[in-house]
Amino acid sequence: MVKVGPPRPGFTNRLYREVISQGLCTACGACVGVCPNESIALEWVVPELVGPCESCGSCWKACPGKEIRLGDLERKVMSRSRRPEERRIGIHRSCYAAHAVDQAVRRNATSGGVLTALLLYAFDRGLIDAALVTGMSAAEPWKPAPVLALSRDEVLVSQRTKYMLVPGGLLSILGKAVIDRGVDRLAVVGSPCHVHAIRKIQTNGNGYLKTRIGSKIRYVLGHHCAFNFYPEGTEALIQAVGLKPEEAASVAWRDTSEVPFPGQFSVSAADGTKRSMPLLQEYVILGGIYDRPRCRLCYDWANEVADLSSGDEVDEFGFHKAGAQRSHTVVRTRAGEELFAGALSDGYVAAELVTEADVARNLGFLIKKVGNIPRIEEARRLGLPLPDFGNYPFF
Ligand SMILES: Cc1cc2nc3c(=O)[nH]c(=O)nc-3n(C[C@H](O)[C@H](O)[C@H](O)COP(=O)(O)OP(=O)(O)OC[C@H]3O[C@@H](n4cnc5c(N)ncnc54)[C@H](O)[C@@H]3O)c2cc1C
Ligand code: SF4
Ligand code: SF4
After folding, report:
1. Does domain 11-62 correspond to CATH entry 3.30.70.260?
2. Distance from Cα 195 to the centre of ligand 1, integer Å
3. Which CATH architecture has domain 231-289?
4. Which of ligand 1's atoms lies nearest the C-alpha of 133?
5. Which of 82, 140, 186, 291 has the fewest C-beta atoms under 10 angstroms from its C-beta?
6. Angle at the Cα of 247 (from 243 to 249), degrees rounded to 5?
7. pLDDT digit string (tens) for 254-263?
8. Is 228 in the pocket of ligand 3 (CB under 6 A)?
9. Which residue lies with its CA nearest to atom 2 of ligand 2?
10. Which ligand 1 atom lies nearest to the CA of residue 228?
11. pLDDT digits (tens, 9 = 90+) for 196-229
């Protein structure tokens, strides 16, 4: 008798069935970036099969949409489980309030410019060949786009937070970067869901994922993340200040050139005129109308399996600390520690030690780590689609 095993995992029978059609896709782009046949495309925020699928399982194994067992990932990446006092922001070696020493880098950044300063240090010291970051589309300047920065100057285009899902997916160019372009030492800066995909590629994957892609990623850096927003949110902001998206020559979600940190939303038109909107109004429009439901089922705020993560320094109420322009930076792994220590001693960043409690006193932390619990619990009780968190320590 011929035994018939379960079908091999492919786009249609696993990725589409268990992730995309269930509303669990984070739009990270990893499936696009690892498909050896380049058969997946992500035009807006939903991946589609656009070519032949050989059911190799690469997309499924890289995907952070459904299986996101952070407890397992942290044991694989950090070789231990978290301690009780690490339950809020994850395993870490130290926490800092830090900023780029270069004043231009700091002024152009969202917070203290730490992520950019670390990439500049890594390029200058020959630690990386390229960095995969979020820049802006040349063709449609109001849209973020994945950028493979091959030099320190190219890194500067990625400065600043883009409060919008990256159309096409940040990780959609990962395979092209390391396989087609032969980048051997890559740094990636991403949201927690991007970092989950990278850690799955590095640790869970088959030989192709782990050896040909994961092993080329030297630094995995990330920002803290309460939630992200549909592209339509940014279109609405641009329209609210009286322009059409196609009239925008540049957009800044946290522009500090005319107001102090934490900045404001601004759009520059082709004729050089600039229009702006207060940050609170921006947050109400984006967070109140255009938040993506998948982000409400996400439970990683502080980018818990990155080598190093960075968010805003906050005041006693958890809101951006007025005028501070510093980043709360969490150093987690040995790679992150070496990178940060090198940048510190070579004068790329300046830092002051803070506590885990200082970092967790952030409204974004409350939105995600407190606010998402009843949403996750409700989905669990009703049997609605939910990521598989494994034995992750909720609190
Ligand atoms: C959607 C979103 C939600 C956030 N939520 C919080 C929060 O709740 N609390 C908090 O303290 N901080 C949050 N942040 C992080 C914060 O806005 C800053 O990104 C962080 O403090 C790093 O600042 P920096 O000055 O060190 O970075 P910079 O040196 O200015 O560099 C910014 C880096 O962020 C990357 N980046 C920008 N936009 C995106 C994007 N859409 N997707 C992936 N990568 C991107 C760029 O590639 C760049 O490397 C959020 C960021 C985003 C994009
Ligand atoms: S890999 Fe990323 S973009 Fe692709 S289905 Fe999974 S979550 Fe969505
Ligand atoms: S909230 Fe989670 S799923 Fe949404 S963008 Fe941030 S890390 Fe990704």
Report:
1. no
2. 13
3. Roll (3.10)
4. 47
5. 140
6. 115
7. 999 899 889 9
8. yes
9. 28
10. 1
11. 999 999 998 668 999 999 999 999 999 999 999 9
